[in-house]
Design goal:
By secondary structure, the chain is α+β, with helices and mostly antiparallel strands. Helices cover 26% and strands 25% of the residues.
Length: 582
């Protein structure tokens, strides 16, 4: 990789850029005037991919009742520093698996700030590589068993229910052992105020019918008077004169309330109170807390003689002994990261332009390997720089955890240049970038001088050209002369099949710009320049407003033919042909 990188980093000249353009895009190159004196924007984009193995270590503390299922495993690791030293391997994970699977007990993070070199311990290895699965190691001085502090080894503690407090059976404080409590809805009275009459015993006499007319001439008012004490009744017989209508209505005392406007309340029988439904009139109900027994038996603690008023110790789970292990977990992971690194100034391209030129299937090279005290390094000047950058960005280290134990790298340099040029026909300046300059150059043009858009100016020129053509104005003739002049210059430039730099410059100076032409006229000139085979010249292309103007054009195409120092045979033939046609 190193030698290939050096090759890609070699300097690039204007002449080399021209050769790449000429070879890869000759059509556009023929219209590009590239200044020799301009500075080349050169940048190297480096694709780097790092595959690495990382070891992370974390100290954990697990506390647990010393169940019989794990006691034998624990016996293997207890004994302190005198037996195991400062640190020792845990050869079996049975104790951790049993605690998690059978008792749902797992270790938690432990701060090792006070433990000197807590993570300094040999990695497990196999076949000259760091093993993917690492054994736990523990700190013997922090690994021990002890009598449970909460129950003092008794396995049970006093019931922690706030009412029971170890009594197991106790008097009900709600009913004071009576089994009955005062009925809340009636406050112990056994009856409640009647809602219908609000305690008055009387209610308003029933409402009248919709028309207020009840019965006939006899004045029946069984529906009530709506509290008024009277009802309206009709006059009975129809009048014999005056249109034959009924006699006017008249008031009559309500027979239901006898004119009082109210009647006795039926639900309470005029008493104003009704029996309480909750207590059935007794004024008390069964105590819900003790179910009427007067005492309570705690459901949380034991009731047998030996454990009366006690509950299982939550700390030791009735074992009486607890244990703890402080240990270190080591996790080995395989990782990969890739990045495009810019060396030089940012060019007018994106990472996606670079990625297309990256050989992403290339194999990585082993550049670093560390298996405990054995270290192997195969960096070159570039891979070491890129690896160091990755390590810094990801917080990795070769001496501390998270610890890098293996690095494999692939990198590829994609050289790029950016330059400006002048378009030969439009005389406008533009920029382009060449990506992957040496191996597989991709030319990216950042603007398109030959892409035409409609504008107000173009419309104005179109209208002016129309009237100029009709009236043969001086301005119109000058423009037609200029158009034919450019056409003949293009024919001459392409006559010998190649356009030299001197010819481009001369042609550009003669043309100056295409500002006076319509888009349609510009497009004709662009198409002519881009054509691989030019059509035969006609009288139309060699027609000029005056002989003097024609002679001037002959001089210009002759000068163009000599711009590179000599006139080619094809150029001479074309000039003679044009002379004969003018």
């Amino acid at each position: 990789m190193k030698e290939e990188a050096k090759k890609q980093m070699t300097s690039i000249s204007i002449d080399q850029i021209k050769e790449v353009l000429k070879k890869n895009d000759p059509g556009n190159f023929d219209k590009m005037i590239i200044s020799e004196g301009q500075d080349i924007k050169r940048s190297n984009y480096i694709f780097a991919r790092l595959k690495f193995d990382k070891v992370e270590r974390e100290a954990e503390l697990i506390k647990f009742p010393l169940y019989g299922a794990v006691e034998n495993n624990f016996s293997d690791i207890e004994g302190g520093q005198s037996k195991h030293g400062n640190k020792a391997v845990i050869n079996s994970d049975n104790i951790f698996d049993t605690l998690q699977n059978s008792y749902q007990i797992k270790g938690g993070s432990f701060e090792v700030g006070n433990i000197t070199e807590a993570f300094v311990y040999k990695l497990d290895e196999s076949g000259g590589e760091v093993s993917k699965t690492q054994k736990k190691y523990f700190f013997p001085d922090l690994t021990y068993r002890e009598t449970c502090d909460e129950c003092h080894g008794e396995k049970y503690i006093t019931c922690d229910d706030y009412e029971c407090e170890g009594r197991h059976n106790y008097d009900c404080t709600e009913c004071q052992t009576d089994g009955k409590v005062t009925c809340n809805p009636c406050s112990g009275e056994g009856e409640n105020t009647c809602r219908d009459c609000s305690g008055d015993g009387m209610v308003k006499c029933g409402s009248m019918l919709g028309s207020g007319l009840v019965g006939g001439g006899f004045g029946s008012s069984m529906a009530g008077c709506n509290g008024k004490g009277f009802v309206y009744v009709d006059g009975g017989n129809y009048a014999k004169s005056g249109g034959g209508g009924p006699k006017p209505k008249k008031e009559k005392k309500c027979s239901k309330c006898r004119g009082k406007g109210e009647v006795p309340c039926k639900p309470c029988g005029k008493k104003g109170v009704i029996k309480c439904n909750n207590c059935k009139g007794r004024g008390e109900v069964t105590c819900s807390k003790c179910s009427g027994k007067g005492d309570i038996t705690c459901s949380k603690c034991y009731g047998d003689k030996k454990r009366y008023g006690l509950i299982d110790c939550p700390t030791c789970d009735t074992v009486g002994t607890v244990a703890q292990v402080v240990y270190v977990n080591s996790h080995v992971s395989n990782n990969s990261i890739e990045k495009i690194i810019l060396k030089g100034e940012k060019l007018n391209i994106s990472d996606s332009n670079i990625e297309k030129h990256v050989n992403s299937s290339s194999e990585e090279t082993l550049v670093y390997k560390k298996v405990n005290d054995i270290v192997e390094q195969n960096y070159d000047e570039y891979s070491e720089e890129y690896a160091t950058m990755f390590e810094k960005n990801m917080g990795l280290d070769k001496n501390n955890f998270p610890l890098v134990t293996k690095e494999e790298m692939y990198y590829q340099v994609v050289p790029c240049v950016e330059l400006s040029y002048k378009h030969m026909l439009t005389n406008t300046s533009h920029e382009f970038t060449i990506v992957n300059f040496f191996d597989d150059p991709e030319i990216i043009f950042h603007s398109q001088p030959e892409v035409l858009g409609q504008s107000a100016g173009n419309i104005t020129k179109s209208v002016g050209g129309f009237f100029g053509k009709i009236f043969k104005t001086k301005k119109y003739k000058a423009k037609e002369d200029k158009k034919n002049e450019i056409t003949l210059l293009i024919y001459l430039a392409k006559a010998d099949g190649k356009i030299e730099e001197e010819e481009k410059i001369s042609l550009s100076e003669d043309i100056q710009n295409l500002d006076d032409f319509l888009n349609s006229e510009k497009q004709i000139l662009f198409d002519l320049m881009n054509s691989s085979t030019l059509p035969e010249l006609t009288k139309k292309e060699v027609k000029f407003s005056t002989k003097e103007r024609g002679a001037e054009v002959i001089d210009k195409i002759t000068n163009l033919a000599m711009a590179d120092g000599e006139m080619a045979d094809d150029e001479k033939i074309l000039i003679d042909k044009i002379k004969s046609m003018i």
